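Look over what follows to help learners.
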Amino acid sequence: MRKILVTGGTVFVSRYVTEYFVKKGEDVYVLNRNTRPQSAGVKLIEADRNALGDKLKNYDFDVVVDVTSYTKADVENLVKALGTIKEYIFISSSAVYPETLSQPFHEEQECGPNSIWGTYGTNKLEAEKYLQEHVPQAYILRPPYLYGPMQNVYREPFVFDCAMANRTFYVPKDGKMKMQFFYVEDLCRFIDTLLEKKPEQKIFNVGNKEAVTINEWVAMCYEVVGKELRTVNVDVSRPQRQYFSFYDYEYYLDVTKQEALMSDTKSLFEGLQESFEWYREHEDLVIKKPLMKYIDEELKKRD
């Protein structure tokens, strides 16, 4: 049994990571402000991660899984509060890659500002750099779009809602923009793989090997719900984020190094099935956006 600290632990990725390791029989602690319900089987350290003081001084963790650091200050405050660090896994982001680089992005490319992601990407990059300088044994993971049960962002749940309501789906442009995903359970499995194999490489792109087009992804979501898909293509003049869940930005990652350690990942269709099963029982936990309202008031006028 390992003593594992997970930052956050109450929303999507951090909650899934927490419950994944609880099910494995690990001794799991979560660090959060206790403003949301906690998962069963965890031990709560109630604190603001940026005002930790001596909250962690009497703990000795085997593993820290940092899901909720977004800035250098987030990482720095946690590292200083922890004292001795054995294993540290930081969930960063593929937003650290400038859109001007050649694709697929690979770990050896020089990172920097990305105009699509703005300060989110540069803040993650500063957090990575601090961690590399002060915790050289830490692993840094750069995922694309994460999905799966406990998803609280209105991505696949939006398409599920459209399908359940038998709505025509409004597709950006020709629907051929590609997107890359990674199932949240596969993220957890890869964390386990790193802790077991302890590779020398410290930075990994993680994700499904294959990207899919918008058309393919939406069709999978409708098939999962069991509804017929009808589509309307929206011209480029319309702001994509007003009626669709993703930015107008195609990118994908080279995940060769991940695959060398963990070659099997869940198929996107199967992952979406499990996402939908969870969503049907937990719709109230998803933060919904008025995408349908925009479609009804702005896009349907032209039909």
Summary: Residues 3-147+182-205 form a domain with the Rossmann fold fold (CATH 3.40.50.720). The chain has two domains: 3-147+182-205, 156-180+210-250+266-302. The mean pLDDT is 96. The first strand starts at residue 3 and ends at 7.
